[in-house]
Design a protein that fits this description.
It is a single chain. The chain is an all-alpha fold and 345 residues long. The chain has one domain: Up-down Bundle (A middle domain of Talin 1), CATH 1.20.1420. It contains 13 helices and 2 strands, in the order αααααβαααααααβα. The protein has a two-stranded antiparallel ribbon. The chain is globular and about 55 Å long. The protein starts with a helix and ends with a helix.
Length: 345
């Protein structure tokens, strides 16, 4: 019955598009509709990723989910830059990294319970998140003094973006090569074929991008009506909404006992945001204008680096335990409270 309801609720996505472009519905109605529509889309991405993982193994399956799940965020960030919302973009990048490490990983462990983890893969990806935080210091420290969006900082961001993208390509190639040789499981009976899984992933990702764009455009008015700061909107709400696919997918997969795949999704997504989405957005911003400096606030850099270190400690023994998931969720709640008190830049 639950699966039938989820399949039926996929109709919310076209309904949201019709409400926006045909009936020109108000911000509150669009926000509620879009948020509701993202739930079944997240489930569908998780479902198709799980079927793809039957053919590729959890390492590559997690990479696929993170890649397709982060595509909407890249699109949303590009729109936000064009709309002149650089702080929203930077905040959403920070929030995506932190929420995937603390919220999604924590929820996956809580729902998945005890199980074996791929410590090598998780440590490698958490390591590149930490390295990204160090590189972000190059444009960030000067941004703490004077205008944070000045052109010179955008120029200073360029070499950092290039180095991050090169790091992403090297680590991803290395990681996928290891997973390709190490994981040769037979697909379970009833699993979708790999082409079908990838086709569904693509369609669900496109739909998620469209719905997320509608939600983000309605979110600012909705959030301001309840008195939230722009930074909090970006770092918490936009980040969670933009990553709904990975969030929902990891939890659904964890509940089915596939804790390795669920944790790969959470950490792969955070690493991709830090070393692929962030530099890609910075480079694309030179096309849509104005160029985006990756100058992050101390609270943003501190929470990203701290989340990576804490997660590395949690997965150090190569096993997941439910209390560790609750610990990560508790830390995320504390971080959200800190974001609330920090206010706008």
């Amino acid at each position: 019955m639950a699966r039938r309801l989820l399949w039926a609720s996929l109709a919310l996505a076209p309904l949201t598009v019709v409400a926006r472009y045909v009936f020109d519905a108000g911000s509150t109605a669009l926000f509620v509709l879009a948020a509701a529509a993202l739930v079944p889309l997240a489930w569908l991405i998780g479902e198709s990723t799980e079927h793809a993982g039957e053919h590729t193994g959890p390492g590559i399956g997690g990479f696929l989910n993170a890649s397709f799940g982060n595509a909407p965020e890249l699109i949303i960030a590009t729109f936000a830059i064009a709309d002149g919302l650089p702080n929203v973009v930077r905040g959403s990048i920070t929030g995506s990294v932190v929420s995937n490490i603390l919220l999604v990983l924590g929820a996956a462990i809580v729902f998945g319970g005890e199980g074996r983890l791929d410590r090598r893969s998780l440590w490698l990806q958490l390591g590149i998140v930490f390295v990204a935080c160090v590189l972000f210091l190059v444009p960030s420290v000067p941004s703490w003094y004077g205008e944070p969006d000045r052109h010179s900082l955008a120029v200073l961001t360029l070499p950092v973006a290039v180095v991050l993208l090169a790091l992403y390509l090297l680590v991803t190639t290395y990681n996928l090569r290891i997973h390709r040789h190490a994981e040769r499981d037979e697909a379970a009976a009833g699993a979708w074929t790999l082409p079908r899984s990838l086709a569904v992933l693509t369609v669900a990702t496109v739909a998620t991008a469209v719905v997320s764009e509608i939600l983000v455009h309605s979110l600012e008015d909705f959030a301001h009506s309840v008195g939230l700061s722009e930074f909090f909107i970006a770092v918490v709400i936009v980040a969670i909404v933009g990553n709904a696919a990975e969030h929902g997918g990891a939890i659904v997969i964890a509940r089915r006992g596939k804790i390795r795949l669920a944790t790969e999704i959470a950490i792969s997504s955070s690493a991709q945001v830090a070393v692929f989405v962030a530099p890609a957005v910075a480079l694309l911003s030179w096309l849509v204008r104005p160029p985006l400096p990756l100058g992050l606030r101390p609270i943003e850099l501190g929470t990203m680096a701290g989340a990576a270190v804490l997660a590395a400690i949690v997965v150090a023994n190569g096993r997941s335990r439910r209390y560790e998931g609750f610990l990560l969720l508790g830390v995320y709640a504390a971080v959200v409270a800190a974001y609330g008190f920090s206010g706008d830049r």
